[in-house]
Amino acid sequence: MSKIRVLVTGASGQIGYMTFKRLLEQPDRYEVYGLDVNQAPSERVPGSWNLDLPGDRFSVCDLSDFEAVRAAVESMDVVAHLGADPEGDEWDSVLQNNIIGTYNVFESARLAGVKRIVAASSIMVSQGHRELEPYKAMTERRMDDIPDEFQMISPDIPARPTGIYGASKVWSESLARVYSDTHGISCICIRIGQVERDRPRPRQGADIYVSQRDIVQVIEKSINASADVRFDVFYGMSNNDYRWVDIDHARDVIGFIPQDRAENDHAYDSPAS
């Protein structure tokens, strides 16, 4: 079986670095390449991690530089597009990194004949739902206000971003649909939850938490998804007690089974009785 040639954008960032590391540890399965504005790991990467990123497999460039992105994507089977502005506070940065940069990746993939793009979306696409009941009650752990039965937020429910970062991720999902339907590229978008660098963490994020190994699992399973998965959207989330998004769809389609839950990983306080 031939190796899968994978380019990881944002390879020096937290999620990109974890993914790059995981794939690099399986040389019999993957030939992995990285791309980022710097080769040195970002401050979001735990200092204890020590991964020597090979220079001949790493492109140092900005996602807004189309020609540089085009060169990096050439001859790849899969692009794991994990690069973006993670803060999303300034429009100019969101425009260059999340809008123009994402277009450059998708268009370069089309020109290079890439078979699949696995694109990082975000829970921020659905953040507005978190501010509505009963999801707000789950976030705040108001036990008496959580009904016995309610509808989980699934990818089929309309997006509800609350800022330009989330809106840019809605756009990237729409772009993925265009490149799947129009150009025949298999496109999988992952709405990534809150990934923490260290533990324990504040209780407020327990509902949207995803462990490091769970997010890497869903990314790798998306890379290896069946060829008949032409377009899909999954929530990348651990199996948290107060989770309000659907992860069953990812289990059914790609076999994603979270290994963790926020309440185990973080020593959150129990809700008041």
Largest sheet: 7 strands, parallel
Mean pLDDT: 90
How widely separated are the two ends? Answer: 56 Å
**SSE order in H/E notation?**
EHEEHEHEHHHEHEHH
The CATH superfamily is NAD(P)-binding Rossmann-like Domain
Unreliable parts: 267-273
Q: How does CATH name the architecture?
A: 3-Layer(aba) Sandwich
Overview of the molecule:
With 273 residues, the chain is of the alpha/beta class. The protein has one domain (4-265): NAD(P)-binding Rossmann-like Domain (Rossmann fold), CATH 3.40.50. The chain has 9 helices and 7 strands; from the N terminus they run βαββαβαβαααβαβαα. It has helices spanning 14-24, 66-73, 91-112, 127-130, 135-140, 164-183, 212-223, 248-254, 262-265, and strands at 4-9, 30-36, 58-60, 78-81, 116-122, 186-192, 231-236. Strands 3-2-1-4-5-6-7 form a 7-stranded parallel β-sheet, sandwiched between helices. Strand 1, helix 1 (14-24) and strand 2 form a beta-alpha-beta unit. Helix 1 (14-24) crosses helix 7, helix 2 (66-73) packs across helix 3 (91-112) and helix 3 (91-112) packs parallel to helix 6. The longest helix is centred in the middle third of the chain and has 22 residues, at 91-112. It is globular, with a radius of gyration of 18 Å.
What's a quick, concise take on this entry?
This protein has 273 residues and is α/β, with parallel strands linked by helices. It has helices spanning 14-24, 66-73, 91-112, 127-130, 135-140, 164-183, 212-223, 248-254, 262-265, and strands spanning 4-9, 30-36, 58-60, 78-81, 116-122, 186-192, 231-236.
